[in-house]
Amino acid sequence: MDQLAGVFVANHSSFIQIEKMSNVFGKSALQSIIPVDLFLFLISNDLNFKTMNLKTNLVLFLILISVIFTSAQEVFKNKDLTITKLEKNMWVVETTDKTTMYLIEGTEKALLIDTGTKCEKLDEVIRKITQKPLYVVITHAHGDHDGNIGYFEEIYLHAADTVLLGKTYKGKVHFVKDGDVFDLGGKKIEVSHMPAHTPGSIVLLDRKAGTCYSGDAFGSGQVWLQLRPYAPMKTYIESCKKMENLMDVGITKIYCGHYPYVKKAYDKAYITEMRTLAEALVSGTAPEAKPHPQKVSIGSENPMMVTLGGATIVYDPEHLK
Ligand SMILES: [Zn+2]
Fold this sequence. Notes:
- By secondary structure, the protein is an alpha+beta fold.
- It folds into 2 domains: 3-71; 74-319, Ribonuclease Z/Hydroxyacylglutathione hydrolase-like (Metallo-beta-lactamase, Chain A, 4-Layer Sandwich), CATH 3.60.15.
- 35% of the residues lie in helices and 25% in strands.
- Strands 1-2-3-4-5-6 form a 6-stranded mixed β-sheet, with no helix packed on it. Strands 9-10-11-12-14 form a 5-stranded mixed β-sheet, with no helix packed on it. Strands 13-17-16-15 form a 4-stranded mixed β-sheet, covered by helices on one side.
- Helix 1 crosses helix 2 and helix 1 runs parallel beside helix 4 (49-71).
- The longest helix has 23 residues, at 3-25.
- The model is unreliable at 1-33 (pLDDT under 50).
- The chain binds zinc ion (ZN).
């Protein structure tokens, strides 16, 4: 292969790299990090030897920048947690004990979903990401979701979970109900009641973005229904149906309450698998169940677990119906 042919091959692979980068970031996103003149130069069909060499070097440089650009999505880290920007105006907070918070920012206000188990000075940490007035909403009153509410003066919660809240919180508790909306300015977050995991479990919907933040309502691969106060399996089936209906009218992705385990958003198929499995449990046609290895203080003495595809239900056999 002579030198010119070598440069031609390198130049050709450069175009492939530009193409790949366009696919990863979207053409407009790529154009936004590259000046227009440079972008036009890179995609031009100039076969001059020197320009082709220059192009190859430029593309290698841009690939390096793009690697830095993607890894820079992690915006904060300390001993308790890591904050990563997942989408425009939306961050996931992953704690070292694998709990999850989500932070959403509008033009006027911001909203924090859940607070994790134990994160030192969580209020100050959140302030590093947004300085806007902050709503703190708890998807349900389990310790790994409301553990740090003490850092905030007010929280929002479904009234049916008051029984689980405990008496140590000194701030103001606002109750939310199905259909309530938090207006953040250019972004509206709607409450939808999805009981079963707890009586007051809620999910939060960003209908415009097609996003649902589900807490533990549908688990994170494994839904825990073996906890007191027990809900009948039909309550869970109803919540699954309600979620499936929401996914028929615009919700496309579900960010669960323990994101570090799954590192992705669920789609409708996950909820359908959960409902199918719950229905099979009630009708006695589910796959064979086995004992669940983990017993928790607020849970069944003899928890069982059953799996279908990507869905697992942990339940108390005494409280199926
Ligand atoms: Zn929970």
